[in-house]
Specification:
There is one protein chain. This protein has 328 residues and is of the alpha/beta class. It has 11 helices and 9 strands. It has an 8-stranded parallel barrel, surrounded by 8 helices. α7 links the parallel β6 and β7.
Length: 328
């Protein structure tokens, strides 16, 4: 059976606060654990008023402390923002605190713009080999193989599960070359999904970590007791996408009736494209969409994204999602 996991952007809703977003994330993670989700990931974004997971390693510790068995990790850490040694120390600490439960998904994007990258005090390297070099340096710290001449403490001997993330073909190539599991960000960038999965599987080189490809694909699921209610709830995500694409990122807005019908045709078309890897509806509707997505991708794991304004409605969406995967 395909595994199912959860990706949380730790949304700050309009009228809410970072503190309430973090409290909701811990509560939602415990709920996901009870429902049988495999892992719970949070993502690194910076300079965005609607996302509270910028200090990703800290948030992972917060969520892991609120749960008992579910794997917790990053989807992902944007490695160009950090020295690999610092990430080795952070995730070595997390692995020591929560052994056998920590994932480290690594991405190449900055998670914001050039101004924020400069503020983080890291220069974005234009060398296409910089990212895989940083990944291998990070692996060296965990392996404590002496190649760097530095012992990461914590970090040496730690065993977080590493994943390569991507929204283009590049991440697929890196994951295949290094023999690591690959996660594709199809929940917001579905255009290259099929080609990326093909490249990853066809070029995969077995490694000490993984002897066969393991592909994860992200999929939006906003589920409710009726299709109409789910469409209404999904309007919050839709508003956020439109705001982001027009250069006006905002906190997660409350849902509105008839949102898609109010959009100019070119916005509605763009929204339809970006949400093509999505299921919005009641259980039967979601089941059909997940079946089709799985038949298309043959993903070993589907990681679900779900941005809903009301926390209890979001928890209900996860319950329906878990029921759908149980059916499958």
């Amino acid at each position: 059976m395909t595994c199912f996991s959860f990706l949380d952007l730790v949304p700050v809703v309009e009228g809410g606060s970072v503190a309430s977003a973090l409290a909701n994330a811990a509560d939602l993670a415990a709920h996901a654990e009870d429902l049988g989700f495999t892992r719970y990931w949070v993502a690194e974004h910076h300079g965005m008023r609607g996302i509270a997971s910028a200090a990703t390693s800290v948030v992972i510790g917060h969520i892991a402390a609120a749960t008992k068995t579910i794997r917790v990790g990053s989807g992902g850490i944007m490695l160009p923002n950090h020295a690999p040694l610092v990430i080795a120390e952070q995730f070595g600490t997390l692995d020591a605190l929560f052994p056998g439960r920590i994932d480290l998904g690594l991405g190449r994007a900055p998670g914001s713009d050039q101004r924020v990258a400069a503020a983080i005090r890291r220069t974005l390297d234009s060398d296409p080999n910089a990212f895989p070099r940083d990944v291998m340096e990070l692996q060296s710290y965990f392996a404590d193989d002496g190649q760097t001449g530095i012992v990461a403490t914590p970090g040496a001997g730690a065993q977080p599960q590493l994943y390569i993330l991507g929204s283009s073909l590049y991440g697929a190539q890196v994951a295949a070359a290094l023999g690591l599991p690959f996660a594709f960000a199809s929940h917001f960038a579905p255009q290259m999904l099929d080609e990326a999965l093909h490249i990853y599987r066809s070029h995969f080189r077995p490694s000490a970590v993984l002897d066969a490809p393991h592909a994860m694909a992200a999929f939006n699921i906003i589920a409710a007791d009726t299709d109409a209610e789910a469409e209404f709830l999904a309007s919050s995500l839709m508003q956020s996408f439109v705001a982001l694409r027009t250069g006006n990122p905002r906190q997660l807005p409350p849902p509105v009736e008839g949102y898609v019908a109010s959009l100019p045709p070119h916005f509605a078309s763009a929204l339809n494209d970006v949400l093509s890897a999505s299921a919005i509806g009641a259980a039967d509707t979601v089941t059909s969409a997940v079946k089709a997505f799985q038949a298309r991708t043959h993903a070993d794991e589907i990681i679900v994204a779900c941005s809903v304004f009301d926390h209890e409605k979001r928890k209900r969406s996860l319950e329906i999602t878990a029921e759908v995967f149980a059916r499958l």
